[in-house]
Amino acid sequence: MYGKAIVAILTAGIVAAYQALSGDQTIEPAEWVSVAIAIVTAVGVWLVPLAPGAAWAKTAVAVVLAVLQVLTTAILDGLGTDEILLMLITAAGAAGIWIAPAESTTGVSVGVGADR
């Protein structure tokens, strides 16, 4: 089950599409930073293994990078409607990663319907 990685990839796609389609229809340098953070989040969530003692690790990666996304957005662009919406997309992505199911080849299972 790759639920957490799928949610992270979908979130990265939404962030990239949002940055490309909002505002002036181009991705500015500051917006590329948020796209890069979303991509690194997806890769990090996919790469981090589900370990019996650290079933929370994938969510931790997503939350740390979501905080970085929010800070970067606020520092580089200031706070406006577009930035607040990006922050909500990022927070929803991190929450989705926490909720999404995942299972390792060793039998560790987390997410909806699994013990946390």
In which range does the helix fraction lie?
Answer: 55-70%
In round numbers, the mean pLDDT is 85
Name the poorly predicted regions: none
- Main beta sheet: strand number and arrangement? 2 strands, antiparallel
Radius of gyration: 15 Å
Describe the 3D structure.
With 116 residues, the protein is mainly alpha-helical. The chain is built from 4 helices and 2 strands. The chain has helices spanning 3-21, 29-47, 57-77, 81-99; strands spanning 102-103, 109-110. A two-stranded antiparallel ribbon has the order 1-2. A hairpin with a 5-residue loop joins strand 1 and strand 2. Helix 1 (3-21) packs antiparallel against helix 4, helix 2 (29-47) packs antiparallel against helix 3 (57-77) and helix 3 runs antiparallel to helix 4 (81-99).
Gist?
Helices cover 67% and strands 3% of the residues. With 116 residues, the chain is mainly α.
